[in-house]
Each structure stands twice: as C-alpha cells, then as structure tokens.
DNA sequence: CTACAAGCTCAAGCTAACTTGAGGTCAAGA
DNA sequence: TCTTGACCTCAAGTTAGCTTGAGCTTGTAG
C-alpha cells in the first residue's frame, strides 16, 4: 500500500517545485540526502519532500542554508542544541513583530493620503513600535 | 534650539549602525538622499535616520533594496500604487503565518524528545498548517 | 603650517545561493 | 541500430548586497 517511496530527481523537482540543479546543490551542501543511485541516477525517498518543505519555510523565515543545515537536522542520535533552537525561536518572535508593523504600515499607507508617510503620525507610531523592540539588537555587521 | 539637523556621514553611520560604505551604497541606489555637500562631503538631514530604520525593517521583512526603492518612496506628488502596497501586505500576512509556524515548530522541537522531528505528529501538524496556507495563492493582480 | 582623521571616487573583490554550459552516460522507443 | 531525453559531473557565470583597496582632498587640532 505504500505509494512510490522512491523518486528520481525529476519527480522530486516536479513535486517540490525546485529546480533539479537546486536539488543537486542542496544535496552537495548536505541539506538533503539521496538514498542511493540506480546506475548514475540519484534516488530519493519521498520524505525528502517534507524536508524540502521545511527548508522552504526556513528560507522564508530568513534562515541561511547553513543555519538550516545545523538547525533542521534532527537526525537520530544527533542532539540539536536546545538553547540554539529557543534562541532562534526568540529571534523569530522579534521578526514577526517587525513584520506585523511593516504590514500595518503598508496597509495604512495604502489608505492614508498624507503627502509624506514618513511624517504621518500613524505611520511613525507603527515604525516606532517596531524599532523599540529592535533596540536590543546592537550589532556592527549587517546581513 | 533644534539639535543638529544636519549630519555628516560618520554621524549617520554611528546613529544608524550602518557602515559608511553601506550608506554611500544606499545613496547610489537611490534609497536615501544626501541634502547636499560641504566641500566634497555629503550632508544628511536627520530624517534619513527614520528612513534607514524603515529600510532595516523592510530588509528584515525580506524586501529587496529595489523593492523598497519602489515601495517606500512616498515622495510628495509621487503616487505609489495602492494595489501594490496591499499586495505586499498580503504577502507579509502569509509570511507571518509561516514564521509563526516555524517558531512554534522550533519551540516544540526544543522540548519534544522524539528521535526524528520530521516524524513527530505535532511537528508535522505545524508544518502542514504552514504549507496549507501556502497553497492559497489568491489575488489576481501580480507585480 | 602641517599632520591626520575623516571624507571622497572608482574599481575590484567577496559571500550566498543558485544557474548555465560543455561534454558524457544510459535505457527505451521507432 | 539510432536517437531521444533524462540524468550525470565539474567549472564557470550571475545577482544582490555590500566591503575593501588605492589614491586623492579637506577641515581642524597642535
């Protein structure tokens, strides 16, 4: 009753929406694994699709591939640093608040007809809200 | 008794936390503007700090510099496309939901001692939740 | 007045995350 | 048998977003 558990790279590409070259690239980086070869061709377990979905989410969340390699590798026996995860979760918290502020800012800007939004009090309030939380983030280096 | 309204690039760098080279780069891209020069040196109005804060938020939200150049330029007279803003806000909505799922996933993973989180039902539920929303690609108008 | 820190320009370099290209393998259908 | 088409490798190219380096200019403190 198990549906095709083994997929070739083209099938994974079709189902994940990622380019074949991207899949090979991810495998080389260690983000995903093929479960063997048939001749020269890579074979993948269907579970790789779940993992790729997780990677997409992570990318969207702003994680780098390297970070995800560390964070999302919940392999058997490999204990992933609990603090590290919590820390990442906290970073996401901040980010979510900021995104929410930006979203509200955009929605407001679409409706508000002030000449310059940078001077609109509502807009500034939203901005300030987001920045206040940001204060904790003193770092010399940008992304 | 207005405090120094005019800042030189070093001061902007100090107050914004961005490298001087980054500020010059942003100016070249048109993301910020200097209000003139003293000799060869750029001068900035204090308001550039607010704009830079907005840019930082936007970057965090995953906007590219080019996008922000279009979206965050609420200049006098320049009418920014209302649909475009709303569309961006909707994109952020989706992103916020995904980030929330990832955050919960991380928090769960930190506590759950299942051997493989990809197989943990709670984790999968969170993942599915995020992915389901992803399917809903509404909105007729693209960029 | 002269040293020098802080500016400046322009070109080149760097990292992440992929993509593209050249050239080769292999199973299957006409 | 011959031809496709999907796969392979490895190297080089691409884009975004900056940073670095070389070489030149200035305002100001000693």
Walkthrough of the structure:
2 copies of one chain form a homodimer. By secondary structure, chain A is mainly alpha-helical. Chain A has 2 domains: 6-71, Orthogonal Bundle (Multidrug-efflux Transporter Regulator, Chain: A, Domain 2), CATH 1.10.1660; 82-137. Helix content of chain A is 57%, strand content 8%. Chain A has a 3-stranded antiparallel beta sheet. In chain A, a hairpin with a 2-residue loop joins β2 (36-38) and β3 (41-45). In chain A, α5 (82-111) packs antiparallel against α6 (121-134). Chain A is elongated, with a radius of gyration of 21 Å. At the A-B interface, α3, α5 and α6 of A face α3, α5 and α6 of B. Chain A binds a DNA duplex (30 and 30 nucleotides) through α2.
């Amino acid at each position: 009753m198990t549906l095709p558990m083994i997929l070739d790279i083209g099938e994974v590409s079709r189902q994940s929406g990622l380019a074949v070259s991207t899949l090979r690239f991810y495998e080389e980086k260690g983000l995903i694994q093929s479960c063997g070869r048939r001749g020269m061709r890579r074979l993948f377990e269907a579970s790789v699709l779940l993992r790729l979905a997780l990677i997409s989410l992570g990318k969207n969340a702003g994680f780098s591939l390297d970070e995800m390699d560390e964070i999302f590798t919940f392999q058997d026996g490999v204990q992933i640093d609990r603090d590290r995860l919590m820390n990442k979760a906290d970073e996401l918290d901040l980010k979510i608040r900021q995104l929410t502020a930006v979203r509200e800012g955009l929605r407001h800007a679409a409706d508000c007809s002030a000449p310059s939004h940078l001077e609109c009090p509502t807009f500034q309030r939203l901005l300030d809200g987001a920045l206040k939380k940001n204060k904790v983030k003193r770092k010399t280096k940008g992304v």
